[in-house]
Amino acid sequence: MSHPYKGLPDDRFWGKDPGIGDARLLDPLGPPPFTITPQQRIVTAGSCFAQHVARRLSEAGFNHHVTERAHPVVPARVALAHHYGVYSARYGNIYTARQLCQLIDRAFDRFVPIEAAWTAVDGEGVVDPFRPRIQPGGFVSESELRFDRARHLACVRDALQTMDVFVFTLGLTEAWEDRRDGAIFPLAPGVAGGLYDPSQVAFRNFDEVESRDDLRAAITRIRAVNPRVRVVLTVSPVPLNATFEDRHVLLSSTWSKSVLRVAAERATRDFADTVYFPSYEIVTAPHVRGRYFAADCREVTAEGVDHVMRLFLKHFAGIASDTRVPPDSDDPSGPDSHLSRMRGLMDAICDEEAIDNG
Amino acid sequence: MNLRATSGPEDWHPQEFSRTLRRMVRNANPAVICLCMGGNEHNILGVAEHPEPFSVGDSAEGSAPADPDRWFVPRAVMRDALREYLEPVRRLNEIACETFADSVKVFLSPPPPIADWEHIQSHPGVFREALDLGPAPNALRMALYRLQVELLREMAARAGAAFIGPPDEALDGDGFLAKRYFDGSPTHANDDYGAILLRAILERAEPAT
Lengths: 358, 209
Known about the structure:
Mean pLDDT of chain A: 90
Strand content of chain B: 5-15%
Strand content of chain A: 5-15%
CATH topology of chain B: Rossmann fold
Strand order of the largest sheet of chain A: 2-1-5-9-10
Distance between the termini of chain B: 21 Å
Number of domains of chain A: 1
Low-confidence stretches of chain B: 1-7
CATH topology of chain A: Rossmann fold
CATH class of chain B: Alpha Beta
Low-confidence stretches of chain A: 323-350
Order of helices and strands of chain A: EHEHHEEHEEEEHEHEHHH
Strand order of the largest sheet of chain B: 1-5-6
Distance between the termini of chain A: 63 Å
Helix content of chain A: 25-40%
Helix content of chain B: 25-40%
Oligomer: heterodimer
Number of strands of chain A: 10
Largest sheet of chain B: 3 strands, parallel
Radius of gyration of chain B: 18 Å
Structural class of chain B: alpha/beta
Number of strands of chain B: 6
CATH architecture of chain A: 3-Layer(aba) Sandwich
Number of helices of chain B: 7
Number of helices of chain A: 9
Largest sheet of chain A: 5 strands, parallel
């Protein structure tokens, strides 16, 4: 007897997935619409999970396109501590699509937020409200911050205009907004600088429509300056560290990831050369029985990141497990001398973890 | 004494260095020990222009020098970089302080940089082959020097040592070494400068003697 499922491939059926018997065989990704070569310039951005992606791509010999580098006089360890090379530019974690959109607008002088600087937590110096944990020790003055910001935004422009591939990891829907101009802060004022004044900032939790529109606006802006860029979207599997909604953080986390997953899916339908990569699904799949989460039930283990990146390299670069392509990074310090040497030292730097109820 | 004459700091094993110190210091229980290790890092970074000209974050102007065409290094980044470069100095100072645990400790600041480029060119010393790119901007040189002095001052405080900074009378109007204290080198001060510091050391040492 005929039925619509008859003859469909095995991967359409839960029970036929080899990952049930051996989690390492779980591979929910089909052939992507494009491939990535070691020569192509890859820009990464997003929530803290994106740091793993950036680091592993560099280690695998891909061209992590770093446009904001530390000066050569700065030792590699110091540079990394100050977020040089963590992402393509020192924008820190970008948790929401709205934040990404505003970063692009700031880089191209379309948006100058009213809030220019936050007082550092220790009261000495200032921090950048839009990347408050980028620099241990903060900035000595607002004028110094302005100098650094000008260079930073020039590097963001450069990255956006010259990249071949943009990998964006969507992380959160919750954010804090300046009531005066709508500027989105990655962290609430008071957590890593600034003063929390409810009359000045509002809590926002972007729903599926807002997240879809923001992501669409971000990709549209990027394509306006770089029409041929290919986009890989992922959703961070790292649960929320904290929620401001009046409910359990697990419920907020599920809602947030669901919204982001929908926004990413919609973007792949709206834009050519835009693909979703299932980091979230790989790490949270029942097949792995929770073992890709560390003891805190939140951090992703190295084994989990390995699985994610093994599939990324397999599908986008045709690289089998444990194979390395020749290094071709455009970072002159090279993966051997910079990022690779930091392997093991560098834990993902998660701004969101600064949020506590203490 | 010139510890550099013995070997490089990277080769010094703590116990060996401590024994060497004890051997070289004739008085086994000195009332005061005076340490002036770690002097040239700011000059290595800034006595001459770098192939990639850079500036350092500054409180008032934002950047020293305030030139947007230079590669900007935030002050906190340069401070941490200098701290890393000074780590061998910190370790040596620590061992010296432990070796003479009962002595009063005094740390000395290195002399301020020399702004006179003609003097540096005439007395290039070890920097002979590094001057072809011309002088680094004075604003940068002073920023680097002040950062180094700040770090050494903090190092002294953590070690429970007094710190003697550059004496005001030896400075020109911009904080550089005044001409009458130049020595025949691009970075060192002369005996007169040393005499000023000796007086300052003896003043600090007085309560202990």
